[in-house]
Amino acid sequence: MQYQQLKIQWPDFSQAILNFATLLGLKDVPLVCDHAALRLNELTTAQTLLAQWREKGDIISDSIINGRPIYIIALNEPLQLGDWKIACVELPFPSKPYPQQGWEHIELVLPGNAVTMAELEQSLNTINPNITAVLAANPAIQVKRSAPHAEGEKLANPTIAFKLNNICIKVHSADIKAVVAIEKQ
Questions:
Q1: Which of 39, 51, 53, 117 is the most exposed, having the fewest neighbouring CB atoms within 10 Å of its CB?
Q2: Cβ atoms of residues 145 and 42 within 8 Å
Q3: Is the CB of residue 143 less than 8 Å from the CB of residue 120?
Q4: What is the DSSP string of 87-112?
């Protein structure tokens, strides 16, 4: 996989994500999409893409999360996804095989600065009071709650992931650039 292949995948991925965001009731609420993430199966592919993404922006983080390197690249030109301008790309090095390589998820920042899962769920219910009904009506949507943590990370950033087929939308309370800035303090 090369950068050019990701560029070709972007329109289909974007449309699938926008459709999913609409289904979840997250498309037309005031949220920021702080980054898009890839999933890769081969170390050499990840190394090649890292070199190619370096030409498109600056590495602002290279943390070890859950035992593997994850790079955050701040883009010189944001990716466009509907009305969202995405400033960063997350490039995790492989840890397990994925059903497909390429674009896998986006992450949306919920207002409210939640530091616990309960606070994050309350923020989500505030901006989208119908989310429980949407999930009940669509049992194929998988929901996962987690608290990814980098070594030395000082900012709690609980996350709720919604997955349908091979795409995923995650919501969290802290913008990736804020997380990185606090890491570096």
A1: 51
A2: no
A3: no
A4: EEEEEEPPSS--SS-EEEEEEEEPTT
> SS3 of 113, please?
coil
**Alpha-carbon span 136 to 140, nearest angstrom:** 9
CA distance 45 to 68: 15
Tokens of 145: 């709650």
CA separation for the pair 116, 159 (Å, rounded): 9
119-160 per-position pLDDT tens digit: 999 999 999 999 999 999 999 999 999 876 555 555 567 899
How crowded is residue 133: how many other Cβ atoms within 10 Å of its Cβ? Answer: 10
Looking at residue 54, what DSSP letter applies?
Answer: H
Cα–Cα dist 177/93, whole Å? 20
Contact 151, 144 (CB under 8 A): no
CA dist list (Å): 135 to 24, 38, 163: 8, 25, 11
Least confident of 59-63, 106-110, 140-144: 59-63
Helices (H) and strands (E) in the chain, counts: 5, 8
pTM for the model: 0.90
**Of 92, 115, 89, 104, nearest in space to 34 by CA:** 89
DSSP string, 132-151: HHHHHH-TT-EEEEE---BT
